[in-house]
Structures are given as C-alpha cells and as structure tokens.
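S.,

Sequence below, as promised.
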Amino acid sequence: MPELPETETIARDLDRAVSGATIVDVVVSRSDVLRELPASRLAERVIGATIVRSWRRAKLVVLDLSTDERLVVQPRFTGALLIDDGALPDEERRYSTVAFLLDDGRALHYRDIRRLGTVTLMSAPRFAAYSAKLGAEPLDPGFTAEHLSALLRDRRQAVKKVLMDQRLVAGIGNIYANEALWRAGVDPSRAARTLSPREAGALHDAVVQVLQASIAARGTSFRDYRDASGARGSFVEQLAVYGRGGEPCRRCGARLVETHAVDGRTTVLCAHCQS
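The prediction came back faster than expected:
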C-alpha cells in the first residue's frame, strides 16, 4: 500500500492541483527518504523548476519538471503526497519528510510516518532506464488477455506471486491480487502455467475491473493511505476477500480462508469457488 489505484488517484489529484506551479524552496526534515542525492543537491536542482505534470508509473507518483528532470515518489506503506494550503492538520505536517514550497503560497508535503518510502530526482534517461525494468501497465491497451496468458504460460510460481511481480505486471500489490483472483475464481496458490487461456482471460478482465473500480472509489484506505487532499478512499467497502478472512464468501457463502502460505503474504480466498 499504496498500490496502483491509490497512486493513480494521487497523481491525478496533483496533476489538477499543482501543474504550472513553481517550486521556490525545499524543506527536508527527514533526509533518509531521499535517494541518489543529498538534500542540498535536491534543493539546487528543483528550486525554480515548474511542475509540468503529474502521472503514475507502477506504484510510483512522477512529477515532470520544466528542467526535464522528474521527481519520483514511491510511497510504499505509509507515504502520502499532501497539498497544504494552510489547512492541513498538524498531525499530517508532523510526519512531513520533504516539503516543496510553491510560488502560490501552498506546499506539497511528502508525509511518511514509518519513512519506508522514497523521494528521488531523476534525469529523463535515468528514469527511462528505471522504468524499463518495470512490467506492463495493466490498464494500458497493450495489456491484453493474450499478453497475460503469455506471461503465465511458462511460470511455475503461484499465480498470485506472478501477478505481484513488478517486473512482469506493474502496480498490483497484495490487496488487488487477492481481489482479482477471487473475481476470476482462481486459486491464488495455483501454478501460473496451469491456467488455461480462458482462465487467463477471466483473470485479465478481473484485474482490469477491480483496478478501475478502486480508482473510481479513490482507492482503499485501511490506516494510512490518503489522497492529495488528505481524504480517505472508499473502496474498502467493496472488498470481497482482503481483510475478510473467516467471513462468508459474498458469492457462495462459504467461510473465507486466510493463509500466509503464498509467498508469506496474507492471502484470503474461498476454497469452495476458487479452483
């Protein structure tokens, strides 16, 4: 967390709210979130730059700058990018690690309670090389049922693990892997190569549908995820399996099983209707 829907929501919010704003100062409170350059160099390179646009790649929020460099933020577990117009709660400011002060008087905070996320300034070639190591975007037109079937075809690992491998498919984490597999009726522990083309097609459709539904609900908030205005996402109300171990399956009524047998991560499934 945050996964694709959450970072997509943040990126869209920022694109509407801060595109065209110029960075006039940088305040680094916790430099341990910075990667590849120290705080002083970050300030030198971004002060005076205008934010051209904000967008998402995988689980990253990317801010394109007028200098042709990119601020790349990976929120991981407790990170958030929050716009502060003076009304941001003190509790949120307390955990600000980096603040980009804008020419209109607002600030853009990278808030991270556990400081497991990262902030990196990358040149365009550096980002291109970084991005090339990431997998296909599941909401792009090129991510077809045939493409997913080809990814699964020769892999012995559990299908859930393959879905979460960022080198193969970008942006899917534990929440949405659980949800997509339930929607598709596929056992998360099945070897990926055992899925038929028909099952791979059903899984492809489930992945796309659950991601789009979560984006429409502005993501899933359990504890720390907030959008750029500090609001919570509401997709938690639509979760069919994640966080519901021991409860009835919403499709067949059987008790949902919770296990850590697949790659050590929490997996929730219906043993009756996922095969």
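The first helix runs from residue 4 to 18.

Coffee later?
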